[in-house]
């Protein structure tokens, strides 16, 4: 049997060596927290550990580096008893054929524990590796990148969307109501045990993600196509607002999760369609929809606060590939949307290639679509000069920040130009 620590070491090793990660199903809450902590601190800890390691670790024992990284993250940033941690990691080393290095691992970790207080006092967290900074530098100034990094170093609060009455839920769950539907909670432990979860009265959703559906005009009785819908956070918002929703996704497995989520929430999409968005739209012959939500497949480079491994994984190539797919899906939207209908396009990517640039190009190539400028009285800085929403982790600082999302609202004008 693998322990949570061992799983974390293996998963980090896969991450840093760019192997396919495959351990999700075995994860426990502890393992998730340890993995996220190690990813968030990896750049600083690699430097810190190097100052304690005075010989080169042979290539065949490379996994020792991941063991030291995971153990140091746990020693410095989690509440585990120090010496128990050493024993655990030395045993993991032995189990993974690193017995010749077990004494060395033991000695390095003991030295780190001895100097723990000083190390923490002088600690400066670096979250983004150079490769991720390069991605950001295509779109943001060094000052903005530094602000993004500083705002992202902490474990973000849990955000939820409620069916109704966020202020009374704020009291029940000891959280903060952000608006009439969203809350920030400092809850730790199992989400399933919180009041209202089992009864299906709320769902987990980052505040920035919740803003996309909130941009539609009145949705009551409107036929809405939710393209790329699984696991269903935005479908749930659309149905709660009174829309008749067709939820489409290309992943059967993720649609099963969507169906389970809708069961728990007692919300029913009108249709659930398992299809590639591109095929579905290019063959579309039905009555056009009143509104379309395209939460497009993307690089996910905007959700590194909650998935810190992303900063170590993503490349400019990932952004380019997703931008091409988004462009193709967008090209096929017009015939599926009624004249006068609204299109909300969003991505959880921080790259402007998948957001601002994508929609600017779409508008220039489809003059029948007009930008509806968005507003936000709580955080006006999220509105771009074009009238789009671009959230960054330092926005909504009073509720613990948010993920980076891009949102645009467009209207398809009547064909005769009215
Ligand atoms: C960002 S997630 C959607 C999140 C969802 N809208 C929500 O609020 O819960 C993107 C989704 O796009 C789906 N997807 C990726 N490529 C697709 C394609 N070509 N056609 C349809 N769905 C696709 C993925 O399976 C994934 O579920």
Span between N and C termini? 67 Å
Beta percentage is 5-15%
Ligands, deduplicated: S-adenosylmethionine
What is CATH's topology name of the largest domain? Rossmann fold
How many separate structural domains? 3
- The total count of helices amounts to 16
CATH architecture of the largest domain: 3-Layer(aba) Sandwich
Instruction: Calculate Rg over CA atoms.
Output: 23 Å
Proportion in helices: 40-55%
What's the shape?
A: elongated
Q: What average pLDDT do the residues reach?
A: 93
Tell me about the biggest sheet? 8 strands, mixed
Offer a concise description of the structure:
By secondary structure, the protein is of the alpha/beta class. The chain has 16 helices and twelve strands. It has helices spanning 4-16, 29-50, 63-77, 82-95, 102-114, 116-121, 130-137, 142-152, 166-172, 207-214, 233-240, 252-265, 277-282, 310-313, 316-331, 356-365; strands at residues 158-162, 176-177, 182-185, 202-204, 223-227, 244-249, 271-274, 289-295, 337-347, 369-371, 389-390, 406-412.
